[in-house]
Amino acid sequence: MTELLPGLLPGLDTGTQMVLLFFVLLALRVPVAFALGLSALYAMWRIGFGLELAGDLITAGVARYSLLAIPFFILAGALMGSTGIAERMIRFFRVLVGGLPGGMGVVGTVVCLFWGAVSGSGPASVAAIGPMIIRGMEEDGYARAHAAGLVCAGAALSIVIPPSIGLVIYGVIAEVSISQLFIAAILPGLVMGLTMIIVLPAIAPKAARGALMALSPEPFAGEPYAIRLLHALRDSFWGLMTPVVILGGIYSGVFTPTEAALVATVYALAVGGLIYRSLSLRSLYETVAEAAASSATVMLVVAYAALFGWVITVEDVVGSYSRGLLGISENPWAILLVIMLILLVAGMFMDAVTVMFITLPIILPVMHALGWDPVWFGVLVMVNLAIGLITPPVGINLYVAANVSRISIEKVAKGALPFLAATLAGLAIIAAFPSISLLLVGWLR
After folding, report:
1. Which DSSP string do the residues of 386-423 spell out, in sequence order?
2. pLDDT tens digits, residue range 51-84?
């Protein structure tokens, strides 16, 4: 049996066999975590290492202090969705910018950006705020497909806007300051949101100007704008303070990004339970169970990815593949283009966590060899993977949006195409001008 795969694939080293086996298992619809684990165990068996080593490697892979941020950020985002904080935020932004050309399209984009500073997960953001934004955009005259497409693209930016789960994982793998990654992603996230807003006039109905959403009635709806805005701000103030508390605490040095995740969770519990009084024991149980399931999925991938990454290192897959990338061209921009294409395609088929654990060990040596800034490169990786979430035919956000909007994935994908083009333009801008990512970071260095 040991010679079976080499007989079918002569001349391939064990590391390459492992990578190919991983994709075969994915094609057979084996869950990503188990595909990683099984292919890595096969490779360990092939190269003669005892499988008892697997337990130690898995433990070492997940026993990292920085990774504690993942389950707590997921729980914080789930709590803010279940306690009505999301609805209050949307109502505030509807009053604030809903009267601009584009109406609820502008509101939806701004809410997605703001929610990115709460959730940190693209698919979770679609599920949490998608139904409310889609209903509001439909009432504003938008086609449901375009509304679902905007939510797909805007929610994808949740892995770019800090605090981002993806940036936490990149920081752990690349050994880069997570605080610097968070602050570096702020301006690129805003650039991506601006490109989406620029596209809106091409798809917005003529009457798209501040229609009321299918939420609870807006207080003081007939009052002057300033009065309505004041009351909307008062109603949503504690929810709007969430990113201020999280990011302000990180950048002021009060707590670390990992500690910020716990602070965000406690803050969400306090706001939902003590201020808004919308958190019951039943809803708390359901929210914690939902967050635990999501966290377990991510951490299982992290655990088995540790095995996968160990084999990649031992078999020098990193060195051989990196040399192959460097040999493509002497032009760094050509190499960067190839890397971005790899990330975009990989992001279409796999979640961001899996893509990073598979590709970063190979790509990071190339980054160092070419002298690219690791913080800028981390932001660029996140933007690529965010676009992969909305790229047909397999973008994960497309499936979630199809579920919440109750239309076919083909229609959602078609509605997302204008925003896909916009985000690709944003990606090109961020790649061409590293100063966008590094401007704010310069103050910390």
Report:
1. HHHTT-TTT-HHHHHHHHHHTS-HHHHHHHHHHHHHHH
2. 677 777 887 777 777 677 778 877 877 787 788 7
